[in-house]
């Protein structure tokens, strides 16, 4: 920790750019002119239908798909990567901006280097970032500098508290309404606070741009991205984005796909279009930084880091030592039926496996059961035959799972954490170790939704509560809370759960995973630690201290302390990719764009201009110390559904 | 009025006070909306059921459809029989949660209180005896330093020095070690040190000023004239009257510290004590646990005040309980 203090001067030198960015900012109030006009469908419905695009080198006449930017002097291609290479810089940004000016019914233009509104004044917009978060502030200042240099826009950087931003700017009272989108009448039949209605329905406070919130891109199950993009009236659309391609048809294709290829085709096309339309200006994916004991073998810089914990070990692969981790908050419950927290999920996972997981290639890996399907509608679950609960509950069979689903998850009284996952799913036992689930609508990516992920719970344990419909009894059952039924179903056995200080485990010699054929060879001896523990340490400085002294084998590292830990020989830092993105949300609703009449954010070329005015590489190097990946479409590069860019 | 009757009266009064506080608590809780009823209604609405009916059913299940006085009697009964309900944020009975918290808090607060009560007045009297000498300034400086530096910050610094650099104390508090073991004494030494330095400042100053008043009093002159040794003179003739006004502040101050500053120290050192139990209950909106800890602190405060009143009469024979 001493290094952190003495290295301060180094830290500052990395922020040299900061003063530069600050100087690019003028201090001025924000003009809050209303008078945005609603832009009708600007020709073309976008999609040119299925053309079997394989996402290869897109040098074809991709412009046809844009509809809106026919006279475009910039060929952005099938899968444009704004903000890098040819698609970064003043020239390309200004060319795209001029396209947008042509589309706008108001006279915006460039006066020398500055972008001016119809009154001839410089365009001035504001950007909000999270108050008190250095990275967020630096990102906003960098954006302001880039937009100032490359587009001549005066961007005012403002800090805001996340909760306040959510309540007053991001969400609004759901009102609903109708509007014309791509020439068709569209109704907001079930508005939400995150999509309260058409662009005319706005939040209380006007705002232009924000980097306060990042969103999940759901790389394992991209279908979930429906909530953001399935039409202008979808569930979550605070910025008022109107897709100009037929996104609903493409999502329909993805939903109905019966082969992996069809699925991929539909998704790739969706993500190419999103890369082009930039509903949110995509910037980057930042990595999670995790510090590990350098003697520990196993952690990988992968989304599935930790999936093969039973094969992790210290130095040589033999059973030794204790795997100790720290967490910032205590656990509400360890009852597998009612837990909804990630931290408690980890604590349960040490002692109790779930149905399956995903390996380092993000592929399905069967733990308790294997799942298979022909068409995505009927799924067969094959339960392993070497699974044992603790006495007196005996062997785990298909009956336990079916009972659990039908009598608890699908009941109207138990309110288990998984109850929403099993709505409308028909479950039937088809053998001692086999059962089938029939979905209402087929879904090839059902396992990736985590919906069919089950904990094994003994039927005999829960049956008395089911008969009485006793929720409190079920929630407070000691065997469930203290995980006393786990038999050979987990790598470790829970010894003690001290509510204030955490959990302690000892190695489970009988672990079923030792006898399976799949997976790494070391599974046959796993787990390779004598003991394990998770300690609750609320203070970050104390967690990091524990990591340095070796009392903890793993702890999260705050990004601003990356260098000092990276140089520390007592700690190995891993960069674990995440599906959460950093984006500029541009307000396409009527209370967005407070720089003059009209709302330029509503025009695709203008959003493209913004995206190509910001250098993703410089942002990642300058602000994120290289600990991030550039973000071009609504998937990270390692996703199976990422459009090809080679 | 004899001593016995005085004590009886004070104890009865303490009982009345606790009943009044419990009653006010009950009225506040029953006036507030019940989260589990709202939860049931929301759940029903989400699943297409009738929210009003679900709320009614939840109310019935929890006995909330009973008249107020019946619920009041039930509440009072469960409070005084220690049936304080289930803590949702910790998945254990409230009494167990509080018991666990107190178990860990007591381990550092007992030494803390004892040391504070011993060292504070001692340093104060020492300062007064050497008033305006370098010894006085050193003692005052020490007391003010501890008083001025925020406990959590001081704690982090000491943890950094002794835990991370010198590695003489563990960074992660270990709940496995026996209460009376060297290991436990070592891991609690720094938190106790931080708390003691934080709390003796005020006490030291009050006792310094109080004893300054007494050291030139008539009875001190008499004692000195009779040849009483300086130690006995200070310990017996100055310390005792000094402690009387001090004892009023002591109890109140320590109770406040119990909840307030101990929370921050518990967070820094990872001690799962009562401060963190209460704070997390507040954050998690765990009504039962919050109510339980409020009641626990109420009872502690009532008993503390009772003890204070009794200690008065022992410390200073001039205060009689006859006219109370």
From TrEMBL, chain A:
Q: Which InterPro entries match?
A: SBP_5, SBP_5_dom
List every stretch annotated Disordered.
34-76
Please list the GO terms describing molecular function.
peptide transmembrane transporter activity
Give the UniProt keywords, A-Z. Answer: Signal, Transport
Reading the lineage from the top rank, the first entry is: Archaea
Do you know which SUPFAM superfamilies this protein is assigned to? Periplasmic binding protein-like II (SSF53850)
Give GO BP annotations, semicolon-separated: peptide transport
Q: Which residues form the Solute-binding protein family domain?
A: 373-642
- What is the similarity comment for this entry? Belongs to the bacterial solute-binding protein 5 family.
What this protein is called in its record is Extracellular solute-binding protein family 5
Q: Which organism is it from?
A: Halorubrum lipolyticum DSM 21995
